[in-house]
Amino acid sequence: xxPNARPEWxxxxxxxxxxxxxxxxxxxxxxxPDTTEKKNCRCSAVFSANRSGLNFRENSVADSFSVIxxxxxxxxxxxxxxxxxxxxQFDLDxxxxxxxxxxxxxxxxxxxxxxxxxxxxxxxxxxMQIHGIIYAKEDWVKGNKKYPVIVWPHGxxxxxxIHRYDAGFQYFVAKGFIVFAPNFRGSTGYGKKFETLxxxxxxxxxxxxxxxxxKGAVAVVALANLFTLMSSIxxxxxxxxxxxxxxxxxxxxxxxxxxxxxxxxxxxxRTPLKIYQAGKRHPHG
Length: 285
Prior knowledge:
Elements: E1 8-11, E2 22-25, E3 28-31, E4 43-48, E5 61-67, E6 73-80, E7 83-91, E8 101-102, E9 116-123, E10 129-136, H1 138-142, E11 149-151, H2 167-174, E12 178-183, H3 192-195, E13 217-220, H4 226-232, H5 237-247, H6 254-260, E14 273-276
Parallel strand pairs: 11-12, 13-14
Antiparallel strand pairs: 1-4, 2-3, 3-4, 5-6, 6-7, 7-8, 9-10, 10-12
C-alpha cells in the first residue's frame, strides 16, 4: 500500500467495524479517531494509493492518529513492519486539501537485518477462518529449517494486530524466534459480527483460535478475575453497558464469571508461567 498526502474525510457507517487502528480494504487505509464511545465516531481519514501525493514504502501502514490538544492539527504515525515509524502532521480543517508534513526523519529505508511481516490464514477448531501475522526473517520463510515460535495474542480483546513496526517483535526475531500474532475472533478490523463473537465468551472460542501447547508462558498485566474487573468499571451507563455486553452480569452470570476467571483455576496450570502484574491496587489482579 502506498498512501498519499491527501486525507479524504468520509462519513463512517456505524454498522461496520470501528477502531482507532488501521482497517485495510484493498489499496486504502482507514484511520478512525479514538473516542470514549465508539458509536459516536462519524468520520475517518482515508489515505488511498490511487491518489497523487507522497509515496511511502510498499506495505506502509498508519497505526496511530492523534489530535494535538487545543488545536486543529492532527498527527499520524506511518511505518512498515521492517522500518521504524515516522510522524506526519496535517490540518484537520483542510479536509481533502490537507497536506501531510513530515515532522520526523526515522523512516528512511528498510533495515535489512530486521524481520518482515507475512499474512497467515488458517482454519480454527470450528472451521472458522482466522487471520494472523507472522514476523520472521525473509530467508527463514523460504527455507525448510524450523524455528521456535512466540505466540503473541493482542490485548483488548477488541483490538487487532496489523503489519506495523514493533520493536518488541523485532527483538524476538533478532534472538532467533518467529513471532505469530493471531487476530482471533473478537478482534477488530473484520466487521462488527466478527468483533462480537467473543461477547460473553471471554476465555472461550478466541482462546481456541491459536495453539494451546507451549513450553512456557508469560502473563503481562493479564486479567485474573472477572468479578474484580467488573467492580472496577465506572458506573457510567455507557461503560457498564459495554462490559455487561462483553462479559455478562456478575450476578446473573455468576457461574460464567467463575468458569472464565483464571483466579479460580490456578490448580489447573501445567505450563511454566511467569506473571508480570501491577501493584496490589490493580483491579484485575
